[in-house]
């Protein structure tokens, strides 16, 4: 019994939407369904999964744009992000227009997340860490069991999240990375919101924004 995942790039922003599931129960959650819902649902069907929840790292349009529609059509609870991103959720329609996305349905999270919370799917449980800086309410999902972290736009292979949007703060982001991500261990592989996977150890060695060399 273990946690498995599949990354599905969606939208023109090639945002890494992730399906995560318990391989015993085949129950799944979808992390950051930003759009391209038919592609996401096709992957669910192809793997024989039962979609049970939507988990959000943060509420930027490329991560949250498909959330309202998916939750309504599939009767799914919306878990996350942290309340700090309420204003981004309130502004989804405006974000849609600004970035040329299809109109996003508004939604209210079923459950907001706090640092130290946990989320479960099937018989698998992941830890929640609040990692503000890119957005005030950004959270990450961490599975110690498989040493994987779904970090949204906090950290990338060779980069970090933008901090020039409303509510962003560079110093806060660096603190989040060093205090909340690094303790997960160098061997932990992270799935970023965009681009390829990497490990925390690799980024500590070589990422120019946060390296400790």
From TrEMBL:
Which residue positions does the secretion signal occupy? none
Looking up PANTHER family in the UniProt record yields: HYDROXYACYLGLUTATHIONE HYDROLASE GLOC (PTHR46233)
* Domain Metallo-beta-lactamase positions: 14-194
Q: Cofactors per UniProt?
A: Zn(2+)
Q: Which segments show compositional bias classed as Basic and acidic residues?
A: 201-213
Keywords in alphabetical order: Hydrolase, Metal-binding, Zinc
CDD domains xrefs: YcbL-like_MBL-fold (cd07737)
Which stretches of sequence are listed as region Disordered?
193-213
Q: Which domain of life is it from?
A: Bacteria
Is the keyword Ligase assigned to this protein? no
Q: What is this protein called?
A: MBL fold metallo-hydrolase
